[in-house]
Amino acid sequence: MRSLLPLLLLVSSCSAPAPADAAGGPFEVESEGGLCIADIDFAAGEVRRGENRFLVSLTHDEAEITSASGLMVAHGHGSEGTIVPGDPIEVSIDLFMVGRWDLSFELAIDEVSDRLEFSIDVP
Q1: Which residues pair with 111 in a beta bridge?
Q2: What is the pLDDT of residue 17?
Q3: What are the φ and ψ backbone dihedral angles of 66, each rounded to 5 degrees?
Q4: 111: burial class by Cβ within 10 Å (0-12, 13-18, 19+)?
Q5: Which positions ≥6 away from 119 have C-beta within 8 Å?
Q6: Contact 91, 79 (CB under 8 A)
Q7: Helix, strand counts (H, E) of the chain
Q8: CA distance linking residue 93 with residue 49, whole number of Å
Q9: Mean pLDDT, to the nearest integer, of 75-79?
Q10: Dihedral, CA atoms, 17, 21, 24, 29, nearest 10 degrees?
């Protein structure tokens, strides 16, 4: 047990982004580089297994989402998203399994790369 303690401390100090409220309602995510804040809402009012559409409003006028993906870390599954520009930006990702998904939206802001990351629990 003594030899596992450093490993347990390391694992407990690494955490995924806090999960969004799967019951619905908008939430905010600050970009990794702090260049932008996104207001994100579920188009269907809640997250569910299968295709999910996220409505994303970005605080930076020059920001755009260049790619989106989801990763189910526990199983190693991933899903690429589609992006429809607009106001708000619409991002669709197939969350095809129940469980925790880590989502990543790549951003381009004035020729600088940034990223939005958050987790979703699919019921």
Answers
A1: none
A2: 52
A3: -100, -25
A4: exposed
A5: 16, 17, 18, 19, 20, 100, 101, 102, 103
A6: no
A7: 1, 9
A8: 10
A9: 94
A10: -40
Other beta carbons within 10 Å of 88: 17
- The alpha carbon of 50 is separated from its chain's Cα centroid by a whole number of angstroms, namely 15
Structure tokens of 14?
């690494």
The model's pTM is 0.81
111: left (phi over 0), alpha (psi -120 to 50) or beta: left
Say if domain 17-122 classifies as CATH 2.60.40.1930: yes
Single-letter amino acid code for the residue at 8: L
For residue range 35-66, list pLDDT tens digits in order: 999 999 999 889 999 999 999 999 999 999 99
Could you tell me which of 50, 63, 68, 59 has the C-alpha nearest to residue 118?
A: 68
Q: Where do we find the tokens 């381009």?
A: 108
Residue 19 pLDDT = 54
- At which residue do the structure tokens 């939005």 appear? 116
Query: What tokens does 49 get?
Result: 């297994």
Per-residue pLDDT tens digits for 11-27: 333 344 555 544 567 99
Amino acid at 82: T
For residues 59 and 82, what is the distance between their CA atoms, to the nearest angstrom?
21
